[in-house]
């Protein structure tokens, strides 16, 4: 086999990255989708990664936070992954059901919404901080709500949450509010239209709090009412994401139904 490292048209790149997915390719290789901190979401081939005692070890597992070296040929869509070094593994967190569902949603959503080869440090930090919080706390609801809300916000799809998008009236802390399909507007009770979904005062308050504070400043665990509010935020935000990507998220079907 020709040694591609000798090919002068291929430039070697190095970056921090998070592995989003990896698929079997041929007999021995893996096709890997990853989020490079420096270059955005991309796909590459890890040659020999499925062989026993591969140099890649477990670095290509979902959500692994790694340092990656890859060759890029400007005429090819796929890069060639030379080496990965583990910074932090999330393999253990996939062993617990609720955590594993949340982590699966993180990787599927990131893969679906992040544009090809467009670096976004905000999205990178959001994905990493959320995965670390799920792993550290073993609790999925609050981090997943935070991730879904901020993914919608960073995508530019979140309507203002403090006033009605139709009449402009301020939405009081305890008043009923409704979210339009696709998240284009939040409406007060008077401006509610057909097809809008109700958002409870608790969920609206939680969403506003999450927009104002970092995830690591929020409590690690919440009471039953807090979990209900978080699940409501998750459901609304994942609806907006599905509307934007024009398909259902397969990992979402594993979530416990909201009461
Ligand atoms: Zn209104």
Explain how this protein is built.
This protein is of the alpha+beta class and 259 residues long. It has 2 domains: 4-88, OB fold (Dihydrolipoamide Acetyltransferase, E2P); 94-252, de novo design (two linked rop proteins), CATH 1.20.1440. Helix content is 32%, strand content 22%. The chain has a 5-stranded mixed beta barrel with strand order 1-2-3-5-4. The chain has a 3-stranded antiparallel sheet with strand order 7-6-8. Strand 2 (29-36) and strand 3 (40-46) form a beta hairpin. The N and C termini lie far apart (57 Å). The mean pLDDT is 92. The structure holds zinc ion. Zinc ion is lined by residues 164, 166-167, 169, 187-188, 190-191.
Rg computed from alpha carbons, rounded to a whole number of angstroms:
20 Å
Strand order of the largest sheet: 1-2-3-5-4
- Please report which band the strand proportion falls in: under 5%, 5-15%, 15-25%, 25-35%, 35-45% or over 45%: 15-25%
Largest sheet: 5 strands, mixed, barrel
Total number of domains: 2
> Based on DSSP secondary structure assignment, what is the total number of beta strands?
8
Second rung of CATH, namely the architecture of the largest domain: Up-down Bundle
Helix content: 25-40%
Structural class by helix and strand composition: alpha+beta
Beginning-to-end CA distance, first to last residue: 57 Å
Bound molecule kinds, no repeats:
zinc ion
CATH class of the largest domain, anyone?
A: Mainly Alpha
The number of helical elements comes to: 5
């Amino acid at each position: 086999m020709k040694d591609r490292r000798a090919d002068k048209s291929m430039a070697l790149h190095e970056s921090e990255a998070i592995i989003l997915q990896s698929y079997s390719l041929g007999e021995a290789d893996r096709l890997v989708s990853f989020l490079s901190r420096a270059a955005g979401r991309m796909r590459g081939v890890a040659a020999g990664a499925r062989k026993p005692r591969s140099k890649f070890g477990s670095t290509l597992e979902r959500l692994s936070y790694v340092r990656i070296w890859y060759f890029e040929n400007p005429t090819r869509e796929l890069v060639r992954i030379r080496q990965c070094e583990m910074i932090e593994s999330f393999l253990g967190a996939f062993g617990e059901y609720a955590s594993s569902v949340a982590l699966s949603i993180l990787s599927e959503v990131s893969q679906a919404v992040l544009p090809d080869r467009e670096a976004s440090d905000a999205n990178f930090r959001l994905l990493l901080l959320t995965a670390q919080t799920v792993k550290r706390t073993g609790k999925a609801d609050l981090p997943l709500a935070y991730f879904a809300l901020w993914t919608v916000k960073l995508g530019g799809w979140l309507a203002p949450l403090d006033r009605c998008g139709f009449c402009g009236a301020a939405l009081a802390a305890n008043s009923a509010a409704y979210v339009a399909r696709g998240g284009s507007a939040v409406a007060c009770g008077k401006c509610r239209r057909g097809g809008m979904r109700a958002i409870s005062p608790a969920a609206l308050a939680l969403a506003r709090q999450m927009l104002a504070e970092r995830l690591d400043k929020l409590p690690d665990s919440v009471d039953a009412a807090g979990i209900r509010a978080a699940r409501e935020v998750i459901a609304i935000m994942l609806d907006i994401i599905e509307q934007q990507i024009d398909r259902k998220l397969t990992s979402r079907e594993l979530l416990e139904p909201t009461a």
